[in-house]
DNA sequence: TCTATTTAAGATAAATTTGTCCGAAATAAG
DNA sequence: CTTATTTCGGACAAATTTATCTTAAATAGA
């Protein structure tokens, strides 16, 4: 469904959000540890998220990653997924046709569009805040 | 969403079904042409579908692929996807945790399970027959 | 200023997926 | 039986994704 990069990116962002809500900056090493992801690969993903303006990064001792508390509420899963995996999952044809278009639909178009739109609106309606809160109060987990 | 192999496999199966409904066997070459897929790769996928008992193959001159007409109605998209992509998409965690389990859910579990179940039931409820019919009467297309 | 620490960036490598090639096996037809 | 045609099977190759390594840049603190 999502790429590994996206899975790691989502988990990392949620973890950073939890820490940010407690006014703590967090290091790459800690993130990779808590998220169960390869350190250097995670670094790449976080760099990309930083360039997309979703997270902030700070170099040097006491450096690390954080998210402005005021933004946590406004960031959606959609933004994260879009930043990492692009928009093919949101607009692409389920059978890989170059263009998904109801005027020349593939055999699964009608059935597929519903699922795709479901996913899209779920991601749009899910805020980083609620995901981080669930994790913070121990309702959900990042490893298993 | 689906792998390339799965996309090709679905399109090929639908095309074979259309031909089979007209009592015609169809060659690999024709399938790859009509489905816009690489010939040799398509051969691999069709071999796999044949081993899974979803399609029949026949070697030699006048050989090719076909589907028993009586089965077309009973074959579902789910069977095809499951044969090629396995069941990770149906049961796997959206964030890649080793096990998706409501008793130790990942942050997106509750939201994700709905989407995943939607997809699953859509694939279960979509028969090869209806997809092939749509294509046969020119309502849908395999290339673009 | 110097050092230690942490992220940035680019090159490189490993793993997986996608795609190709070629000889073998089956089989229809002359 | 021989030949032409078609799928089968395994090895091989290319492309993409995932993961690592190394050096540079920033920066906090001694
Ligand atoms: S054309 Fe294939 S999903 Fe729309
Ligand atoms: S645990 Fe992640 S989707 Fe169920």
From TrEMBL, chains A, B:
Xref: Gene3D superfamilies: Winged helix-like DNA-binding domain superfamily/Winged helix DNA-binding domain (1.10.10.10)
GO cellular component: cytosol
GO molecular function: DNA-binding transcription factor activity
Protein name: Rrf2 family transcriptional regulator
Organism, as annotated: Arenibacter aquaticus
């Amino acid at each position: 469904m999502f790429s590994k990069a996206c899975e790691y990116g989502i988990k990392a962002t949620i973890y950073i959000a939890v820490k940010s809500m407690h006014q703590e900056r967090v290091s790459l090493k800690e993130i990779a540890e808590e998220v169960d992801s390869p350190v250097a690969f995670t670094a790449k993903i976080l760099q990309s998220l930083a360039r997309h303006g979703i997270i902030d990064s700070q170099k040097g001792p006491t450096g690390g990653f954080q998210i402005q508390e005021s933004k946590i509420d406004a960031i959606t899963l959609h933004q994260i997924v879009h930043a990492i995996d692009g928009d093919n999952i949101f607009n692409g044809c389920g059978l890989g046709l170059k263009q998904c278009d109801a005027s020349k639909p593939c055999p699964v178009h009608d059935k597929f569009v519903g699922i795709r739109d479901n996913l899209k609106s779920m991601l749009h309606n899910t805020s980083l805040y609620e995901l981080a809160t669930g994790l913070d109060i121990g309702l959900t987990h990042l490893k298993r």
